């Protein structure tokens, strides 16, 4: 079905979010009434987990509707189905849960809004999960595949010194640090994320791997060649509520090595603070990294605030992160000038853009 204009999608997503808690509670109560044996299987904590999971369904549905990306919701359903399977929850229970979400939203939405919601949920339910397989993250073209494999093992075995040694040895062998960032660290973290998703490692182990990777970045950063001249100033940040930082950190480092003056604000940064830095530095570009789809509305608001605060300036806004995968038009609908799929794309986009020199 044709999707509504973004203004209508934003309004619908806001309605969905307003009913999130009530829908999650009602869906979980109904689910446990249908399946009383689940109390035996999962105990009292099972209901709390059920409410949390249903809330995620509603939150991601709202984000997908706002983004106009059916594919994004399908990706979420595939991902959450795999994760829940590792807890012993079969795919048909996920489909049942989504149908209950649709039914509950149908009681509070008009017919036109419900038609949009139903199209998204139907696409998600019909899109059966793919077989679990390790993603293709090979860095073989640059001769760094073995390095990546060793780096992954160091991350998983809590070998911080070994991880640092592996990355530094790649540098001593003549590999450029941006390539080590992209083909070793970035791809290793993709693999670690997949291992967590398929319940092969715990969330604590995933966090540990990220912390070690962050430590290695700190070892490599002083070795980056930094040009004497500057292309211009860039502010890189994450919006309030965004907790994933390492991707934006790598982009910031590589942009700095490419000749930009970079002000990296980390993540979960209040919008007022971001705008203050943009104003004080007279930045030519603003980079916003977002991993979770439900944070896209905050990105939209940050971009709108930036446009309103600096109407006379040609501030180039570039967005990136997993939230925009599968939604190729979304960055431009929310007001961004460009979208970078990874750190190499970010460098290429800013190089090709008519900005900088301020």
Describe the structure.
This protein is 62% helix and 7% strand. With 358 residues, it is an alpha/beta fold. A five-stranded parallel β-sheet has the order 2-1-3-4-5, with helices on both faces. α15 links the parallel β4 (316-320) and β5. α2 packs across α6, α8 (145-156) runs antiparallel to α9 (160-172) and α9 packs parallel to α11 (203-220). The longest helix is centred in the first third of the chain and has 24 residues, at 44-67. The N and C termini lie far apart (46 Å). The relative contact order is 0.09.
Name the CATH superfamily classification of the largest domain: Phycocyanins
Largest sheet data: 5 strands, parallel
- What form results from the Cα inertia axes? globular
Task: Give the strand content.
Answer: 5-15%
CATH architecture assignment of the largest domain:
Orthogonal Bundle
Number of helices: 16
The secondary-structure class comes to alpha/beta
Number of domains: 3
CATH class of the largest domain: Mainly Alpha
Whole-angstrom Rg: 22 Å
Question: In summary, what is this structure?
Answer:
This protein is 62% helix and 7% strand.
